[in-house]
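Exercise 7.
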Amino acid sequence: MVDIEAPKELRDALRRGLDLERWKDYGDLRQEQLRSLVEEAPAQAREVLEALGYFSPHVEVRLDSARRPWRVLLRVEPGEPSRVVAVRLKVFGPDGRPVPALQSELLRHWSLGDGRVFDSGSWQAAKSDALLRLSTRRYAAARIVASRALVDPARHAARLSVEFDTGPDFRFGPMTVQGLRRYPESVVRNLAPWSQGDPYSQEQLLQLQQRLQDTRYFRSATVAAPLSDAHGDRLPVAVSLIEQRPQRLGFGVGYSSNTGARTQVDYGNLDLFDRALRLSSSVKLETLQQSLGATLQFPRRHDGSSYSIDAQVLHADIQGLTTRSQSLGLQRRRSDGPIQTIQSLQFLNEQQQLTGGPASSSMALMPGYTWTRRRLDSPLDPTSGNLLSAQISGGARALLSDQNFLRLYVHGLQYLPLGPNDELILRGELGQVLSPSASGIPQQELFRAGGIGSVRGYPYQSLGVVQDGAVVGGRALFTAGVEGVHWVLPRWGAAVFVDAGNAADSFHSLHPVLGYGVGLRWRSPVGLVSVNLAHGRAIGSTRIEFHAGVSF
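Solution. The predicted structure, written as tokens, is:
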């Protein structure tokens, strides 16, 4: 057996680096072989310790071969680790001259700075990170031409120096596209975030690849700029694609405590009329509402924008209010990193009827603008980051609307990790419709609250303006919620939450109500599944609520 007396944080590394450990369970080990392993152990231990930054250790080894099984004691006093006292980086540009700006940038991001313990793993990682910073932006052929680490064991000090050669200042060359049979090359070229002659950036290559995959036109997409294909300082780009089948038919069933049981049929066509027009259509039948909708999306333009036309027919019977609506809209969408903007124009015609009451109708032609910023670590199962969205829309009697109004809405979501197994989720929304009155404004543009994603513990859209026993939309909205989740197992967690809020015809008459409870969370392959036991304090009842997916 082998006993190692050393600081706890060093024992595992010593065990991995000693031949004694690897051979200790070998039954036919002869005594002379054992003595040879024992003699080699101090040198092997020093080699392991030097890789961890300890260059002046004291190592003793003692063998007791009379015992059965034999016993080896390795005693290690690592001493003080060596720390970095100086870093010198030099970057030589395409003309062979130093580039001070690049040297300063690499030093700002250098991970093995003054005062850090010098170890071989951190040394190699720091050099690799610096080289990657050069090679992924403009200097694809960058290399390390010299590196040196001078360690003074007596003073426990390390002085580091690295020299880089950037190579050519590469720029994007021509693009070749392979694998297209159905779609024109403009579908690919309009997605490129660069123009020929722009400075090379690996990040932009990855951005194009992600955009190609997001179009759903392609089953796979690979974007590369091999150095072997370079012509001088021009780096050609090769795009290889495998197209997706253009038509898709899907069926789905589900349940949500908000709208009840759901049956859904989806049809999609990625190449409508053989012009790369994307059609998405859906028939959705839920307990409380039913809808038929279709969206026609045009290929992305070279300026980064995309246009779409959508139409929808909706029927809903919720909290004593029946609505039937028909809408037609035009949208211009643009994404820039985490920020997405939408400019829209929508015509909405709606018929409303309270239970047992007369029917009425309203219509509106609404220009609108939506700004959304997403900074989440995962779209399906976020654990850190935030989402912020703001909307403004409105209608005027002079432009096909039954009422003059301006609608404002803000929604925010924050995920705060509190440790490896705990997280805090904060949510809030605020809305207001500015108008002479709510009369003539479609219910779809007013506000109701309650249910999953709003104030839990209250039925879906049960909070609003009470009119003849039914709940209708109001012109003011406020909701907020806080939720803590503890992940007991990697996929299973327990939650506790508190929500507050309401909807009313004005903020003066808005009185927030409280909802709170506990829940179960499951990270399923298709997203988060939530089951809640939620209590609505204002109504004195407790509900079981179920939802699959993330409520954004």
